[in-house]
Amino acid sequence: MTATAGTSVAPAPPGRSRGFRALWAAQVLSVLGDSFSQLAVPLLVLDATGSIATAGLLTGASGAAAVVAGLFAGVVADRFDRRALLVGADAARMLLFAVVPLVWWLAPTPPVWPLFVLLPLAAAIGMVFQVAAVTAVRGLVDGPELTRANGRLHAGTALAAVAGPALAGAVSGWWGPAGALAVDAASFGVSGALLTLVRLPARRAATADGAGRAGPWAEFLAGARFLWRHRVLRPLTALLTVFLLLIYGMDDVVVYHLKHGLHQPDGTVGLVLAAGAAGTVTGSLVVARLRRRFGFGACWIGATAATAGAVAAGAAAREPAEVGALVAVYFGCLSVGGICSLSLRQEVTPEHLLGRVTAAFWTIHFSLGGVGAAAFTWLAQRHGAPVTFVVAGAGGVAVAVAALCTAVRRAGA
């Protein structure tokens, strides 16, 4: 099936694009549900095993599944109907997440192993969804508006995440973590229904550089070659890969610190994560203005340094309010850097390569994330969360310093 389906419409500013508004609403709803799983999955594992290392291993397995899926996600997004991919991915994840609460409620002693099957599979499908979503935004919004559109997407989803963790903590307290995952499953169903309203511009098949004739590996390499040849994207990809190695498991470490280090209830954990979502909203709303004023390089390097600094400062946090403030800074600066990076790739990548470049970037980007999640959660369990925060934060600062010696520093708009 060649990717030529869709109504031929010209891209528009995000505020006037009906398709973008539908995509925005679907993403907001989906992230509202994801807030539930962000809290529920580590709690499920901790309730069943008492081991943060097991939670980290599950995070690592999901990250590895996303990496493997990235080998194919790009060519799938470039070759097939992107709207159908978005709808189908949401439907599949709805079914996968619905299985988890059923197992947890029906089994006398819930086993942990189904999580290591269902959640990595959902992560793999999520990679296909995210690649297709990135390419869909490019088709729905004019190029000069991409940073603002991505900021609105992130701000909207973060607003949902502000309420999500608090609601997830309440639902987890009432019905247990499995009930929170049931809510996540339902959110994917409604999100998929909203995505049927998206109409993407008609586009030609991605055959200009051999897509459709070469195998998946060769087509993946087409995206990787573009990253390698671009003077800014090449160092940026390497730096982000190392950065993700350091921070990929920090959500689990924060939950562990609050539960086992500070002895806080589930509701407090949810409120702290809600503070992080508020930080994401702030970062998402100011990123377009910051990038226009300071340029790409200054925004990305500054945001990366501030993100790492917030992680390192977590070692000194002894009160939930202090943790919440640092989590807000962490997620706010992380969103500024992430939106800048995403918008740059959308702007400089040819349309027929966008899916493969996105997939190649994320596959490389996430390649060490699972290792980092497993390693840093193990470190937290053996030596405590404060030590983990210092090590990860110092490494992140080193990444920002290294960026000063690359073309990233000189990159403008």
From TrEMBL:
Keywords annotated in UniProt: Cell membrane, Membrane, Transmembrane, Transmembrane helix
Keyword Protein biosynthesis attributed: no
Localization per record: Cell membrane
Annotated Gene3D superfamilies: MFS general substrate transporter like domains (1.20.1250.20)
SUPFAM superfamilies hit by this protein: MFS general substrate transporter (SSF103473)
Membrane topology reported for the UniProt record: Multi-pass membrane protein
Membrane spanning residue stretches: 52-77, 84-107, 113-141, 153-175, 181-198, 232-249, 269-287, 294-317, 323-345, 357-380, 386-408
Name recorded for this polypeptide: MFS transporter
Higher taxonomy: Bacteria, Bacillati, Actinomycetota, Actinomycetes, Micromonosporales
